[in-house]
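Hmm, how's this folded?
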Amino acid sequence: MKLIGILTSPYVRKTRIVLSEKKIGYEFVLTDLGVPDNIATQFNPLGKVPCLVMDDGKTLYDSSVIVDYLDTLTPVNRLLPEDRHARTEVKCWEALADGIMDAAVLVRLEGKRPVTAQSQDWIGLQTGKVHAGLRALASQLGENTFCHDNTFSLADIAVGCALGWLDFRFPEIAWRKQYPNLAALSERLSKRPSFQETRPQ
């Protein structure tokens, strides 16, 4: 099994953490998304990462789809509850965390455009989504140790990746001071080997 990705993608990191927590072996194939014919385009028509190439040659893409599949491969460290209501709650945590990353990525991409071509209204809109998402995460977490049912799950992985990517790309967003419960969660997660070995660089 091969995982195609880049070291800085929070979505790739989410997938790598799941693989690590589930103790699933794989080959990590790095690609360069800036090259038109990079290897990701051979397996994902959208040319996006992560992309999982299975042993039979079939491919999966979009991190949410991939991590769902990986959790079914082995009962080791189940990350999604079997109960459908609980599973939906965990997936909503993931959707919120991914949404924060989506908005932050759009801000970063807009910032790469020539200054005269950048839309401050667009940047403001997406930045507002990041802050709204952080408020929601903090409110939902409350004083709990973990995001869902006080048990480590995919929810924590997704949230941890979102927070880690904000630290990596937007250190000026002082979310740790504003949301100490999220800071405490991030600190707990950072001690896990799966998070340590996948820190963006």
